[in-house]
Amino acid sequence: MTTETNTALAAALAHLRQNRDRHLRELDEFLRIESVSADPTKTGEVRHAAQWIMLELATIGFEQVALHETRGHPIVTAAWLHAGPDRPTVLVYCHYDVQPPDPLAEWVRPPFDPRHEDGRIYARGVGDDKGQIFIHLKAAEAWMASAGRLPVNLRIFFEGDEEVGSEAADEFIGEHPELLAADLCVVSDTGMQDDEGTPAITYGLRGIAYFEVRVSGPFQDLHSGGYGGAIANPARVLVEMLAGLQDEHGRITIPGFYDKVRPLTDADRAASAAVPFDEEEFREQTGVPQLWSGEEGYTYAERISARPTLDINGIWGGYSGEGAKTIIPAWAAAKFSARLVPDQDFHEIERLVVDHLRRIAPPEVKVDVRIIHGGAPALTPLDHPAVAVAARALEAAFGKAPVFLRSGGSIPVVAALRAHVGLSSVLVGFASPNGNFHAPNEWMPIANLSGGMEAVVHLWGELGEMTADQLGRR
Amino acid sequence: MTTETNTALAAALAHLRQNRDRHLRELDEFLRIESVSADPTKTGEVRHAAQWIMLELATIGFEQVALHETRGHPIVTAAWLHAGPDRPTVLVYCHYDVQPPDPLAEWVRPPFDPRHEDGRIYARGVGDDKGQIFIHLKAAEAWMASAGRLPVNLRIFFEGDEEVGSEAADEFIGEHPELLAADLCVVSDTGMQDDEGTPAITYGLRGIAYFEVRVSGPFQDLHSGGYGGAIANPARVLVEMLAGLQDEHGRITIPGFYDKVRPLTDADRAASAAVPFDEEEFREQTGVPQLWSGEEGYTYAERISARPTLDINGIWGGYSGEGAKTIIPAWAAAKFSARLVPDQDFHEIERLVVDHLRRIAPPEVKVDVRIIHGGAPALTPLDHPAVAVAARALEAAFGKAPVFLRSGGSIPVVAALRAHVGLSSVLVGFASPNGNFHAPNEWMPIANLSGGMEAVVHLWGELGEMTADQLGRR
Fold first, then answer.
1. With an 8 Å Cβ cutoff, are A289 and B313 in contact?
2. Is B4 exposed, middle or buried (0-12, 13-18, 19+ CB in 10 A)?
3. B49 shares a domain with B118
4. What's the rounded mean pLDDT across residues B420-447?
5. Best to test chain B binding among A211, A237, A239, A414 (most B CBs inside 10 Å)
6. Domain boundary among B325, B359, B375
7. A102: chain B residues, CB-CB within 8 Å
8. Which structural domain range is residue B237 located in?
9. If we measure between CA atoms, which residue out of A309, A435, A124 comes closest to residue B225?
10. What are B192-248's pLDDT values in tens digits?
11. Shared-domain flag, residues A153 and A197
């Protein structure tokens, strides 16, 4: 690193430390916006979050700050392209929408009223993913405020549909490649390795295929005494169909489901084994009596990241009130989703699942299957030049070398950017691995926020020392 | 029948006809009381219904009108015992509580706002069972108003917990045999054979065992990407457990479940075959694409009345809102119930079910099973002398001989009266077999109400011609 860069970097880091209290207040303001993308009544709040970001971007000094209408929620783009044509251009991707906050009763404090306690911030979206957007905003602010410039050309691509499947973002990528043109995408929507400050680079993501199935029988609920035995119970049919989708070890029984699954290589298995995985700690985090043995022949770490899985996300139908209602319910429904791995094609999996459910639907009921959303799995080659740079930046900020992970989660745009724009992504994320992402009392350590900002400041500094060609401009 | 009885009977029938419009207005008033026994917020309304009945009984001329506190809702008793000691004493049993009205949105008009249309009354409880209580009140009123007396000694036993399992009534029967002492119980909580005025005597009832099972896993909902594959999904475990309770034909797989089931005799099968059963009409009533073949070796009519069945009554857990929430739900739960036949013991079945669920519960989750309520099955011998009398009374009122049915439903006190007080019951009911008992838009033909009142007037007349000994006083 040149002395000039070093001096500028030190000034940017100093700016972060001097403005820390203000930053936390601003983050609380951002977290109060109820940007729940799945909830149609929150459409205005989701837009409000996009507008809040736009004002931040403009204030920091980004140009071409734009809100793009989509068939979903708005997409925000911006750019600062004055680092020089030979410098790398980096696209930053995050999402500003959040998961629904229910069950509300289980939150210690309301989900959109941030609580600072024991070095943590509790709020819906603080880890997934508004806190990470904020890290990027403040890292850019630090460079711009202290040096008047960024070391790299930076483009911004923030979406508001990630928690509902990123379909609008997927379309946007196909339609606006010019706004996303870059040498590398940096994605911050993942976590660190632990809460002891060990950073992580995620190099694999699972894809997803999400479904809703509804089994309908009679016009209306029927008396189970008068009809039980001669009318197929839709709830029974549903549980039979769902139970039949997996064997007792969780292995998915849908014909063709595993056909395209890329077998784990020895290198994959060695990388997975190298990451510390404390079974007892994992169990305690979740509170289950015992971990699930699951698919045979794979470790826990492999099963939650590198193998496909299927989970029922919700089920409902009939009477759930107090006491007894002796009915055959008119219908019962469930949401379920499969996590996919390379090289499973989510469109193909959707077809297989729908065909299978239609095939096994008994004639006494009507079975409707809806595809809710899908996303492709992704892998970043570990020898991509940006991976080493990101590792140095993380080590500089956190004082520890990062581990390399495959995540069990899904970020649909990563595969779409690869497919449509040819972009490689490096996933550098700062959430806590235990941070209740899709659960009540989501939280993030304040140390991750400040460490994350410093790591991104370092990352732009490190990447700015490279030429675009060195980074592998296509 | 003596001339004197004939004259009095004619006067009572004339009273019914003269007061028909007033009766329908009074029934509407009774139906407006929201006596939903399962709903803790309706406790006051249930009591209000009991008090409404007490005022009616006292006005008609019943004595010893009493409200009995129980651990459930109140029980109402009353008596008129001046027919003479050699005349039969009859106990009338009905229930004044009703099923929960949800789903409310599916009612054409609110469930407690009676609608008269096309010769029917639509309202929650009109068939099950407030309309039938009303039939008994007005039949007694007709005798008392026209003749100043009843032909038999009559006792009243109306409860408010039938729709939640009649446990309080069961206890009451054991504790107050003196208030229930009689030669015969007449129960009106069943239906007619069709809506063409064919009456029915129900001689068999199924018992019931009702359960709630909850499968709990993690402390809270987990991200299905981060944990899917290593944490057992409680909803998956639940659907597997539930699906495993029956084979594809609905035959229950719980060990020991069928041990005590009394095989159908040739006479049972012949009686069942003698009752018209139109498969296509049954299918159209319910709106299902196809009837369920169900348990092999039995007809539809046998399966809905004389064979044990199991139905899931409700299931819930996880996310059921719009779009997608990618979670492993913290828990999932279901209500399910088995209909029992002679000689299954519901206490034994409860034990078998609970033991079985505990045995098959996998160690990765916690499984809680609650027994919600139970009731014994019952059969009335077809050669009981009261059966022939009731048949004559029904034919006199409806102009058609009744059919003899085994009902698939459950009326727990029938077995309890037999066990604790030694009483035989004759089930003479007037609801429509298609009357949406436990569903939205419950209805009853107005002709059944007037026919029912006339039939009961005839029944007391006929029974009053007998001595208690002829009826088989024990």
1. no
2. exposed
3. yes
4. 93
5. A239
6. B375
7. 319, 321
8. 207-272+297-375
9. A309
10. 999 999 999 998 899 999 999 999 999 999 989 989 999 999 999 999 999 999 998
11. yes
